[in-house]
Amino acid sequence: MNGKAVAVVPAAGQSRRMGGERPKQFLPLAGRPLLSRTLGQLQMAAAVDEVVLVCPPGQEQAIEAEFVRPFGLDKVRRVVPGGQKRQDSVAAGVAAAAEMGAAWLLVHDAARPLASPELLVRVLAAAKACGAAIAAWPASDTIKRDDGRGRVQATLDRGRLWLVQTPQAFRLDLLQEALARAQAEGFYATDEAGLVERLGREVRLVTGERNNLKITTPQDLALAEALLAGGAAGQRMGQGLDAHRLAPGRPLILGGVEIPFELGLTGHSDADVLTHAVMDALLAAAGLGDIGLMFPDSDPAYAGADSMVLLGRVVARLAGAGWRPAQVSATLLAQAPRIGPHVQAMRRNLANALGLEPGAVNIAATTTEGLGFIGRGQGMAALAMAVIASTARQS
Ligand code: MG
User: Fold this and answer.
1) Residue 244: enclosing H or E segment and its boundaries?
2) How far does residue 244's CA lie from ligand 1's centre (Å)?
3) Contact 56/62 with Cβ under 8 angstroms?
4) What DSSP state is assigned to residue 232?
5) CB neighbours (10 Å) of residue 204?
6) How far away, in angstroms, is 360 Cα from ligand 1 center?
7) Which residues pair with 236 in a beta bridge?
8) Given a cut of 80, is residue 103 above it in pLDDT?
9) CA of 32 to the centre of ligand 1 (A)
10) For residue 390, what are the contacts with CB-CB under 8 A and spacing of at least 6?
């Protein structure tokens, strides 16, 4: 059952329902073209070997230059011109895939950028077991048929109704036969499985994903952006690490809390090592460098600076780049004093500055059992991890 699996992505449609100048598949979605996102999901699906992209005739080179190459989508091996209707475009893509030596085909709508790589792989595996398989979602609304004059004619049995999605996967010769038969008879279906069904062949239903929506209207685009912002696809993470020396005559400030102790941390600012690690983690997650870059030691403006104020500026910088903090986890390494009694106040301070609930900010503390500069009480260090979420469009 092995053999090359090639995905065919029809993107030649003119999508009149969206309005605007460009077909929907070329519009940006959360800062990245919708088409490039869809191709990116195929790129991540291990079982998909290569991709054929079908585009409006004459635009092959321009589309490859705009939507494929800048995104490192190297599974896209061919960009071929499509036809009048979707089915003609799929036929063109299938012909190219056959030339490339495909044994299995995975047809996937350009306008379904949220299908997970896992779903793509699952549908392909089901097709390998029986020849043809499609992603579909069980109907949850009651569905009625009208009589053509605005009156209910029948209520359908919801328990057996499925809303059909893509991907749809087929053995090469099966889809070729179905397409050839349809073409000879001038028959057009709204999906490829419909053509295989006409041959009387089995098509297996695979439970798809509710979020695998087809973007057709501007409302769909807004919904997809919200889903991306709320899901892992709209999140990033970063890490931070900092260390400071302990010395007499300095206050000890950790997480914005002044802790009674005979020594304090030294540094250009208030030397709040915990908050510095958190800032570095946030900046790292957003790809914005580090605090040394943002608040240089050489700048007198930051002498003795309150690190909680600096943290506020880091959050503002992130917001400007389209990100908000989502979660922070930090660990303080210190031999003494005891940190436990102050942890809740530190969490509250950090959570306030980050715009989070205290539950989304964790602070752990550990000694080093007397080992190293921390164990000897010469300094403290802190590690932090931050997760950030996209606030909306990042274009
Ligand atoms: Mg520091």
Assistant:
1) strand 235-248
2) 6
3) no
4) G
5) 16
6) 23
7) 388
8) yes
9) 35
10) 30, 31, 228, 229, 234, 235, 322, 323
Give the 3-state secondary structure of residue 205.
strand
CA torsion through residues 308, 309, 311, 315, sign? positive
pLDDT digits (tens, 9 = 90+) for 67-86: 998 888 889 999 999 999 99
Distance (angstroms) between ligand 1 centre and the Cα of 276 equals: 5
Q: How far is the CA of 320 from the centre of ligand 1 (A)?
A: 23
Residue 261 has pLDDT above 90, yes or no: yes
Ligand 1: distance of its center to the CA of 111 in Å? 46
Instruction: State both tokens at 299.
Output: 């700048």
* Bridge partner list, 364: 331
> What's the gap in Å between 341 CA and the centre of ligand 1?
23
**300 DSSP 8-state letter:** G
Determine the distance separating the centroid of ligand 1 and the alpha carbon of 287, expressed in angstroms. 19
| C-alpha closest to that of 207 among 129, 113, 131, 137 | 137
Q: Which residues contact 376 (CB under 8 A, 6 or more apart)?
A: 335, 370
Q: What is the DSSP track for 16-62?
A: TTS-SSS-GGGSEETTEEHHHHHHHHHHH-TT--EEEEEESTT-HHH
Residue 186 CA to ligand 1 centre (angstroms): 71
Question: Which residue matches tokens 């306008």?
Answer: 111
Q: How would you class 69 by CB atoms within 10 Å of its CB: exposed for 0-12, middle for 13-18, buried for 19 or more?
A: exposed
Separation of CA 291 from chain center: 27
Let me know if 152 is exposed, middle or buried by CB neighbors in 10 A (0-12, 13-18, 19+): exposed
For residues 224 and 213, the answer to whether their CB atoms sit within 8 Å is yes
Q: Read off the DSSP letter of residue 67.
A: I
Measured distance CA(113)–CA(25) in Å, rounded: 9
List CB contacts of 13: < 8 A, sequence separation 6 or more. 23, 25, 86, 89, 110, 111
Asked if residue 314 lies in contact with residue 324, where contact means CB atoms within 8 angstroms, the answer is no
Residue entry with tokens 């409302």: 219
> How many Å lie between the centroid of ligand 1 and the Cα of residue 379?
12
pLDDT digits 0-9 by tens, 264-299: 999 989 999 999 999 999 999 999 999 999 998 888
- The Å distance, Cα 40 to ligand 1 centre, comes to 38
In three-state secondary structure terms, 336 is coil
State the pTM of this model.
0.63
